[in-house]
């Protein structure tokens, strides 16, 4: 299923930032440092299992249930 990475990344950013643009940018930067650039993926990108695993791990670290 395409687009899961983009959706998961956006959900993590949204839930962590709660609308605060500074926290959203900080969260996006942390994702990039951990190897997943959310701007690289779009709704029709094929899903990469390693990127999905990394995002799932990040969500757990941030305390976000997926």
Break the fold down into its secondary structure elements and pairings:
Blueprint: H1 4-17, H2 21-33, H3 49-62
Helix pairs in contact: 1-2, 1-3
Characterization of this structure:
It is a single chain. With 66 residues, the protein is mostly helical. Helix content is 62%, strand content 0%. It has helices spanning 4-17, 21-33, 49-62. It starts with a helix and ends with a helix. 18% of the residues are buried. The model has no long low-confidence stretch (mean pLDDT 89).
Cα distance spanning the termini: 17 Å
Q: What Rg do the Cα atoms give? A: 11 Å
Q: Return the structural class.
A: mainly alpha
* Count of β-strands: 0
Biggest pleated sheet: none
Low-confidence stretches: none
List the helices and strands in order: HHH
Brief account:
This protein has 66 residues and is mainly alpha-helical.
List keywords for this structure.
single chain, 66 residues, mainly alpha, 3 helices
